[in-house]
Amino acid sequence: MIKFSATLLATLIAASVNAATVDLRIMETTDLHSNMMDFDYYKDAATEKFGLVRTATLIEQARAEAKNSVLVDNGDVIQGSPLGDYMAAKGLKEGDVHPVYKAMNTLNYAVGNLGNHEFNYGLDFLHKALAGAKFPYVNANIIDAKTGKPMFTPYLIQDTRVVDSDGQPHTLRIGYIGFVPPQIMTWDKANLSGKVTVNDITETARKYIPEMRAKGAD
C-alpha cells in the first residue's frame, strides 16, 4: 500500500451533443491504519502527520470546490495503531461498530476496498468489523475455499447523480472493483490458509471489467 494521502483525480467525461462536460472529482483515502485522531500514541504526542480528523477537513474543502465528487477508501483501515490492536484484543460483539467506522461513516464514502492489513486479525474479526461500515466493500480476487466463490462482493455499479458544465443533470454509472495482493496468503498464512485462495489481480480484472461494462458501467 502507498503512504496515506487524500488523492484527487480529475476525469472529463463527454456528456451531451453540445459538448457539455461532467467534471468528476474522485477522492481517495488509503492506509489510515486506524489513525482516526491526530495523535501519535507511540510518542504520546499530537501530530500533524496523520489522522482522519485532519483529512476530513481536506475532504470537505475538496468537496466544496467541485460540483461532482465521490469518496472511496483503498484499504488498510483496521490495523496499524494501538487502537487497532486494542479493538482486536477486545473483540466485537454483534451490533458493535468499530471506532474506525464510527468515524468513517460520517464522511459519506461511496465504497471501500480491502487492504492486505485487513487480514492481520483474522477473517472472523474482519467480517465483524466490516458489518459496522455504512458503505459497501468490494473485493474481486479473494475466493472462499469452501464454496469456490468470491468471499466478498467482486464489484459494484452505482448510479451517481451529477451535473454538467451547463448545469444539466445526468446519471453516471460508476463501476467499483477491488483487489488485494496474492501475497497475503504468505503474509497472513496463519489466518488464511485453508480458508481462502487469492486469484491473480490482472486475470481477475480481465474477467470482471468486461462484465461490468456489459452491465452498463461508464
UniProtKB/TrEMBL annotation:
One of its GO terms (biological process) is nucleotide catabolic process. InterPro entries: 5'-Nucleotdase_CS, 5_nucleotidase/apyrase, Calcineurin-like_PHP, Metallo-depent_PP-like. Transmembrane segments: none annotated. This is 2',3'-cyclic-nucleotide 2'-phosphodiesterase. It is an enzyme of class 3 (hydrolase). Keywords: Hydrolase, Signal. PROSITE patterns: 5_NUCLEOTIDASE_1, 5_NUCLEOTIDASE_2. GO terms for molecular function: 2',3'-cyclic-nucleotide 2'-phosphodiesterase activity; 3'-nucleotidase activity; metal ion binding; nucleotide binding. Its EC number is 3.1.3.6, 3.1.4.16. The keyword Manganese does not apply. The gene is cpdB. PANTHER family: 2',3'-CYCLIC-NUCLEOTIDE 2'-PHOSPHODIESTERASE_3'-NUCLEOTIDASE (PTHR11575:SF6), 5'-NUCLEOTIDASE-RELATED (PTHR11575). It holds the Pfam family Metallophos. GO terms for cellular component: outer membrane-bounded periplasmic space. Residues 24-195 form the Calcineurin-like phosphoesterase domain. Belongs to the 5'-nucleotidase family. Residues 1-19 form the signal peptide.
